[in-house]
Amino acid sequence: MRAVLADAGPDGTDLRVRDLGDTARLEVDPPLVGRIAQLPGVAEALATAGFGALPHSVEPFRSGRLNAES
């Protein structure tokens, strides 16, 4: 994922991929969400990282988010 982002040029610091069972959630710096969601190669990078053909979303990174969703 970091290689895809580096090649595309978004300058972000936060990146996390969450395995939610039936979906994957890519969390990135909030100002980059729209831009990264449009990047070609995101789905392929997630598949290569072991997430197969799971549907995915790109959402803002927020520390402690998973705890708040429990």
Structure description:
With 70 residues, the chain is α+β, with helices and mostly antiparallel strands. It has one domain. The protein contains 4 helices and 3 strands. It has helices at 2-8, 33-37, 42-51, 65-69; strands at 15-19, 24-28, 56-60.
Briefly characterize the structure.
The protein is 39% helix and 21% strand. It has 70 residues and is an alpha+beta fold. The chain is globular and about 30 Å long.
Structural class: alpha+beta
Largest sheet: 3 strands, mixed
User: What is the alpha-carbon Rg in Å?
Assistant: 12 Å
Supply the number of helical segments.
4
Order of helices and strands: HEEHHEH
Record field, number of beta strands: 3
Percent of residues in helices comes to 25-40%
Strand-helix topology:
Elements lengths: L1 H7 L6 E5 L4 E5 L4 H5 L4 H10 L4 E5 L4 H5 L1
Parallel strand pairs: 2-3
Antiparallel strand pairs: 1-2
Features:
70 residues, alpha+beta, 4 helices, 3 strands, 21% strand
